[in-house]
Amino acid sequence: MTTETVDELDTVKHGDPTTQEKAWLTILRETNEKLAKSIEMVEEQLQSIHDESNEWKTRYEIQKEINDYFRKSFIICDQHIPKAKNILQIVKSTARRGSTIVNQVELDEEPIEVLEEYKQYIQRLCKELECRIEQEGKAYYWATDIRKQALIELNYTYVPAPSSKFQLEKLNENILKPERPSRIFHPKHGLSRSTNNLKKLPPMHFK
To answer: Nearest CA to 71 among 129, 117, 115, 133?
Structure first.
């Protein structure tokens, strides 16, 4: 607790009602300023997390599209390799029978080997992309959780402010203006002041 706060508390304890209300108003204003700064910091953090969340979401969607593309390529290669092997077997069997197709077709297994290597390459690439998508998906959901926590904290610390300057001035005037004590008539003592209707602020506990 700061020295200024201790002095203000002493003023509240030993001062008259008007001084007490002014001191309480000062303490409340300082607390409100601290809350406003906290809300501003949380809003900035929320905005940065929101931007980061959008970036992770975009990267996640792009990687997912790339992964789908390579999956389709893998399926195409997987379908064409057996067909190419079947055609090669037909050509070889035809060549053994002495058909004239041997003179028109070159018996070369290199295209099939290239397709198999390409298939293996796509398989490895798909695994790498799956790992990357899994990592970016975890990061995306992590950023989303942080954003939700920031929203909860922002809603918890939110203090509604007056919508206009006139309302703020009117609120300050009502706080600063002490309530006049009511006068009652007593048959024995005559007119007297009753302090029962004076409003008192609730005690504030400082750690």
So the answer is: 129
pTM, entire model: 0.32
Tell me the domain boundaries of the chain.
3-194
pLDDT, tens only, 186-195: 555 554 554 4
User: What is the CATH code of the structural domain delimited by 3-194?
Assistant: 1.10.287
List Cα–Cα distances, 192 to 182, 188, 197, in angstroms.
Answer: 9, 10, 13
Residue 155 three-state SS: helix
> What does the alpha-carbon distance between residue 38 and residue 116 come to, in Å, rounded to a whole number?
60
pLDDT: which is higher, 168 or 72: 72
Q: Which pair of structure tokens corresponds to residue 141? A: 């959901």
- How many whole angstroms separate alpha carbon 87 and alpha carbon 105? 11
CA distance 140 to 50: 11
Q: 188 — phi, psi (to 5°)? A: -95, -40
| Sign of the alpha-carbon torsion through 61, 64, 66, 69 | negative
DSSP 196: T
The total number of residues written for the chain in this structure: 207
